[in-house]
Amino acid sequence: EQMGVNDSLDRVSKNICPAHRLLYFLGHDQRLKDSVLRVPPQEMGLEHLPDRWGQRPVTAVARIDGNSLGILFVERHEEDFEEESLQDRRRRRSFRFNAHWWHSLRSAVDHTGTGDLVAAWVTAGDDVILAEYSPQDGGFPKGERLRETLEIWAERLEEFNEELDDQMGLSFGAGLAVKRGEKISPQLKRAEHYEKTAKNRWKTMMEGRGKSGKPHPMLTRLENGKPVEIDWTRDNNWQNCTLGNTNSIVVEEKGGRIPTLEDEESVHPEFQEWTEELIERIAEGNDLIRDDREMWGVLKRHYIEEKGGKKTLRVLIPHPVKMLVPVGKGSRGNILQACKIKGVAEIHLLLTRSVFPDDESAQRLIESIGGLIDHPPIRWSSIDGPEAGPVGCRNSIQEWREENDDYVPDHIFVTGSTLLIVASLSYIFPSAGLVALRGPEVFRLPEEELISTLENLEIDAYLTLHGMELTKSKKLKMNGTLLEAPPLTECKMIGSRASLTWFCKSLPKEPSQLIGASIRDIVESVGIGPFAFNAFGFGPLMENASDPKVVNTIPNIHHFREEGIEAGTELRGVSPFNTNLGRGLFKLGRGLVLVGELKTGSEISKLEKFDIRATGEITPKGRMTMALIKEEEEE
After folding, report:
1. What is the pLDDT of residues 121-174, one digit of tens each?
2. Hey, what CATH topology would domain 559-634 get?
């Protein structure tokens, strides 16, 4: 009634802006249309059942995108037809695709979404957003109807493959996100993230289905009439993501948000209107409300009961979660990510004395966190870590527990370098849940339940958290002291770790010693886990100055892939920077200086230009073997 859907404007609330009221009307009318057109039929007849579901909140959304449609519909037989015939082929193929795409989608939605339980929110080209509605009392697991719809759609799409060339097929990649107690917008963002993951997994799956060692045609685009393999981030976790026996893939989550306790209700009888005094009462004592944005997020989670002409305001307050984060060598990067998890109201850091020997070092860490992120309140305590041995570590944790007998965490953050600590904490706090970070995703253990997706750390923030900084000349400072190593060639984040790379540009003896000494200082301060150290071009001198288990002295295939160089990568019209004995060396990569080696069998000049292709094989000196692109290949 406050929106005026009953054609009466008498009780329309003045607190609702016209734009939001218009959106409400559009959604209301579409739901009404869906309910009328797609009412659940009787199993044994055509009679219609009454709508028994009542109010139906959105419980899951899916974002879908067609796989390599641009490649699928590129004409690969231009030489066989005249231009007029080619245009006719394109028109007929486009028409047939659209007809089959939309007909199969509609039939899949109608099959599982009777009574508008599954609705198409967006249908723009091959970009589709589907939503699942569920009754208030459950009825079926979140996302079940939506996944069933995707399975039926994937099966019916493959009927179109009979009209396509060999190895070509129509499929899609989908990301499915279920409701975790929040609004629609976060669900859509998570679904978009899973959709991108699904696309990468589909390409990785198809890569293994090429014939005769050639790239799969669905993974190649035409350049100057020649097939060129596309690039993507490989993800081998596709086996459990396929929809039935089809080539379509869905990446989905199981839901749940991090607070395991029920929301609390803030009840205010005899409600008349919102006032500053009322808002202050709601916010009082709530640790999750740290600014106006979070206050607005809480106030939106309310409803009003009206009985006997009196109104009662009920606001759902999320239960504040206490997170316990052990911090040892190699686990500092997780602190910022733990602070970002929604619903966390307090962070308690357990700092190991081997890394933080005194109050001053611990305070520097807290101050660095405050300079990087708006975080919940942080407390800290010191314990003996794994360096004290299993018994010493366990006894130290028990002593800390006795000193803080009134503290019980809701969750414990798990990292690979703190497993011994976590084992003792789990025994002391059996009711606490375990959460772990894998790339940008936070999972609840042991259920493997995704509870949050976070943005990766920036390199500057990561260095600051480890007491380091990069000067304008790309030299490293640690705890305010300039390290002896020469300027870095490259410094960047790779996943959840930082990569520090030096490349030899002069006589290697002195720089290799300085780099080795600086790396030892870093490892002694923060451990071996947080950084990947690379020192290329220094030869045996670097191996003598550092531990080869800690420092990569020879580039491997992963370093080339990070720079966009893989088997089949082509470089045209390039000249060698060094020639010797029928061999030429070429600079590769976008930022980091990597080397390609071409064996010619005859003397060549630095002024000559070559068309070369990477073979994917690395020499013992860490060079990518290159091969000439022969004229017959181009033809």
Report:
1. 888 878 899 998 876 555 567 788 899 999 999 999 888 888 777 778 889 999
2. OB fold (Dihydrolipoamide Acetyltransferase, E2P) (2.40.50)
